[in-house]
Amino acid sequence: QVQLVESGGGSVQAGGSLRLSCAVSGYTVSSYSCMGWFRQAPGKEREGVAAIGWVGGTTYVDSVKGRFTVSRDTAKNTLYLQLNSLKPEDTAMYYCAAVQRGTICSTGFLGQNNYQYWGQGTQVTVSS
């Protein structure tokens, strides 16, 4: 059974930083895994924030480019999202997700319909 468990969320002031972790079991995080981070703010649809694909290719939504960084540690079977220069509009529940093995991806996917496995989320709140 695949399980993804997010952690690292919290409350910070604008300009601050957080590092989100996604511990994965039942699924091997490798250089050929397609994984991503999504967020959902109250009253809004869930959006893709960052994704990582084969051999480290990455993609980001425009609003976080230059501020967020997605990475993975294959030894720890964990996905990360480094959040820097946080803004109040980054406030949301953040979810990690994984695509079933064998899917080809260069930079990963920002579309949620590509993902089969999801975590429960971790809350990020940014105050001004």
Q: Explain this structure to me?
A:
- There is one protein chain.
- The N and C termini lie far apart (40 Å).
- A hairpin with a 6-residue loop joins strand 4 and strand 5.
- With 128 residues, the protein is mainly beta.
- Helices cover 0% and strands 46% of the residues.
- The strands form two sheets. Strands 2, 4, 5, 6, 9, 10 and 11 form a seven-stranded mixed beta sheet that branches. Strands 1-3-8-7 form a four-stranded antiparallel beta sheet, with no helix packed on it.
Task: Supply database-style keywords.
four-stranded antiparallel sheet, seven-stranded mixed sheet, mainly beta, 128 residues, 0% helix
Summarize the structure.
This protein has 128 residues and is mainly beta.
Extended strand count = 11
Distance between the termini: 40 Å
Strand content: over 45%
Shape designation: globular
- String of helices and strands: EEEEEEEEEEE
Low-confidence stretches: none
Report on the biggest sheet.
7 strands, mixed
Number of H/I helices: 0
Mean pLDDT: 96
What is the radius of gyration computed over CA atoms, rounded to a whole number of angstroms? 13 Å
Structural class: mainly beta
Helix content: under 10%
Present the secondary structure layout.
Layout (H helix, E strand, L loop, with lengths): L2 E5 L2 E4 L4 E8 L9 E6 L6 E6 L5 E3 L7 E6 L4 E6 L8 E7 L18 E2 L3 E6 L1
Parallel strand pairs: 2-11
Antiparallel strand pairs: 1-3, 3-8, 4-5, 4-9, 5-6, 7-8, 9-10, 9-11
